[in-house]
Specification:
By secondary structure, the chain is mainly α. Helices cover about 65% and strands about 0% of the residues. The longest helix has 30 residues, at about 5-35.
């Protein structure tokens, strides 16, 4: 009898650990099965659902090109980091890596601009303003506002400062 009490505790602990492990695996599986956000969701997130679905169809054709360019940019950035981390920096390799980075960023920006040019005519003036404002990162700051500014962000002047 005395021996069954520690065994029961270990059995319960084992079951609890296994349930946590299974929950983590199921959570990971569910997260991977979620569809990716639509192209340029960051710029069109404030629009109504009907407009977003129309825009999504227009942008879907550029999704694979954008993904390929982002992967290329990641590879270029990794190559740049290899050059930067070297004990003795080779200025020729550095210039080449920075040039490759600039070229890939220009390609990506051209793709984004073409995407915007294709969707803006389908929007109302107010919707166009919202999308362009989000593109210019004027809409929502990435960091919380400063407490001394009443929660406002430093990149957005107060109404009285404008």
């Amino acid at each position: 009898m005395n021996n069954s009490v520690p065994t029961t505790k270990w059995l319960r602990a084992s079951v609890a650990v296994n349930l946590i492990f299974i929950g983590a695996l199921l959570g990971d599986w569910v997260n991977q099965s979620r569809p990716a956000p639509p192209p340029m969701h960051w710029a069109t997130g404030e629009l109504d659902e009907a407009t977003r679905s129309t825009i999504k169809m227009m942008l879907e054709e550029r999704r694979s090109a954008a993904r390929a360019l982002r992967n290329d940019m990641k590879a270029v950035d990794q190559a740049l980091m290899v050059v930067v981390r070297a004990d003795d920096i080779d200025m020729g390799e550095l210039k080449q890596a920075l040039s490759a980075r600039r070229a890939k960023q220009a390609e990506y920006q051209a793709l984004l601009q073409a995407s915007i040019e294709s969707i803006l005519p389908a929007l109302t003036p107010l919707q166009r303003e919202v999308v362009v404002r989000r593109m210019l990162i004027e809409g929502k700051p990435r960091h919380p506002g400063h407490t001394q500014r009443g929660g406002e962000h430093r990149d957005h002047p107060r109404q009285r400062d404008r």
